[in-house]
């Protein structure tokens, strides 16, 4: 709705914020680009967006001038383990099983406690906000402390309490793992409009069939997202108990895990028939290219998944396997990785890649009715990206600029729910 038609309805309304005179990339249907664009906000919600001259004379408390800046929706990081920034650079250049069993699991046993989880989650929230991410989807242990850090930082998040069939931080008895996750979801379901609690089963090789079924049933009963690492490495098929002749995806489907509220993280080692199963189940996938590259796990068939209509979001994974939360770098990597893998420079074009980091990511984690694009009625989760720098000049196509040229450090302003959290590149 343009401001002109809004004005007739709400004549003397005082609005909170007008973002004015920027290049508006809304990521709404059809991906319209508005030069000299503006976004009008009240009570954390986008009331209208369009050409800046339509908003002339609007009664507004706060004006944000976006000259020489792109106005875009905040980025969505669909897979994180926020506290793991404490292990950034701890063990690199190792195979996944050695990295996990000899380094990460022992370090977690030693250093992960409620205080460290909260401290490093807060640290990760700051890193994400500074680099233009306004929503993340997390899974870890002591998740109540992650949720606390999320609520205090101002970022939006899906937070999943981890479920694994061996003693884990905060869950000494694995028999209690699903009960703990249920308790977490119940405690945080109405804690904040920016927080969506969830259940996160670590993987089909660290959770038994019984655990998976029990955890998924709980997620369905509670109406929350169910997250799981799936088909990350080629060897995973040898680690899952009771697989028989099934692929990992078909095994999960056979025990009722896949539906539209299931988020399949990685999905690297899947074939065409697995993609059909995912599509039919309406589950979503998260692509974590840098983590998959760093651990040499493989390359997920993302162009095929997208072609089939599976919602695919983009994730960084934890900082121990990336080693950052920078979605601008992740977009650049994703776009180029599939081109070289398929020897086809036309796949994963800039628009497709930016969709994955915004509106499709929001869809994958079930928040596309709230965020992921700049549209009337959605939350004002908005980022301004500086275009007044040599490495983004000239600009022929803003989608190309954002994916291939822009850097996280070009983010100048970040707001979540209409509240400014980063200004002039600094956290407030
Ligand atoms: Zn992960």
UniProtKB/TrEMBL annotation:
CDD domains: ATZ_TRZ_like (cd01298)
Name this protein carries in UniProt: MtaD: 5-methylthioadenosine/S-adenosylhomocysteine deaminase
SUPFAM superfamilies associated with the record: Composite domain of metallo-dependent hydrolases, Metallo-dependent hydrolases
This protein's UniProt keywords: Hydrolase, Metal-binding, Zinc
Domain Amidohydrolase-related: 70-420
Gene from which this protein is expressed: mtaD
Top-level class of the enzyme under EC nomenclature: hydrolase
Any Pfam family matching the protein: Amidohydro_1
GO molecular function list: metal ion binding; S-adenosylhomocysteine deaminase activity
EC number(s) per entry: 3.5.4.28
InterPro entries: Amidohydro-rel, Metal-dep_hydrolase_composite, Metal_Hydrolase, MTA/SAH_deaminase
């Amino acid at each position: 709705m343009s401001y002109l038609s809004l004005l007739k309805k709400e004549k003397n309304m005082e609005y909170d914020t007008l973002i004015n005179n920027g290049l508006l990339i809304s990521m709404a249907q059809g991906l319209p680009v508005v030069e000299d664009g503006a976004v009008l906000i009240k009570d954390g919600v986008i009331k209208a967006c369009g050409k800046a001259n339509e908003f002339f004379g609007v009664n507004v408390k706060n004006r944000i001038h976006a000259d020489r800046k792109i106005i875009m929706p905040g980025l969505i990081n669909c897979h994180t383990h926020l506290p793991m920034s404490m292990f950034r650079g701890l063990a690199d250049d190792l195979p996944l099983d050695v990295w996990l069993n000899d380094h990460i699991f022992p370090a977690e046993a030693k250093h992960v406690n409620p205080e460290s989880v909260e401290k490093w989650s807060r640290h990760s929230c700051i890193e994400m906000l500074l680099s233009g991410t306004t929503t993340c989807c997390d899974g870890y242990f002591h998740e109540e402390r992650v949720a606390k850090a999320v609520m205090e930082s101002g970022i939006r998040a899906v937070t999943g309490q981890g479920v694994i069939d061996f003693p884990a931080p905060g869950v000494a008895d694995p028999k209690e793992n699903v009960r703990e996750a249920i308790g977490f979801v119940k405690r945080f379901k109405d804690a904040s409009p920016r927080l969506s609690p969830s259940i996160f089963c670590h993987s089909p090789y660290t959770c038994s069939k019984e655990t998976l079924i029990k955890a998924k049933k709980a997620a369905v009963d509670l109406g929350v997202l169910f997250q799981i690492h799936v088909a990350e490495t080629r060897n995973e098929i040898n680690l899952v108990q009771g697989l028989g002749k099934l692929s990992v995806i078909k095994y999960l489907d056979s025990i009722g895990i896949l539906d539209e509220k299931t988020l399949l993280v990685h999905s690297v080692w899947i074939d065409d028939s697995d993609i059909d199963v995912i599509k039919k189940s309406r589950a979503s996938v998260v692509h974590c290219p840098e983590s998959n590259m760093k651990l040499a796990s493989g390359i997920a068939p993302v162009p095929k998944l997208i072609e089939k209509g599976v919602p695919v979001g983009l994730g960084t994974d934890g900082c121990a396997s990336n080693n950052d939360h920078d979605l601008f770098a992740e977009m650049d990597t994703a776009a180029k990785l599939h081109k070289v893998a398929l020897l086809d420079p036309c796949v994963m074009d800039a628009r497709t890649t930016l969709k994955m980091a915004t509106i499709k990511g929001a869809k994958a984690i079930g928040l596309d009715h709230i965020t992921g694009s700049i549209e009337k009625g959605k939350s004002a989760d908005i980022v301004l990206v500086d275009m007044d720098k040599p490495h983004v000049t000239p600009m022929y196509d803003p989608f190309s600029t954002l994916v291939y040229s822009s850097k996280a450090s070009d983010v100048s302003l970040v707001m979540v729910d209409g509240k400014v959290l980063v200004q002039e590149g600094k956290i407030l």
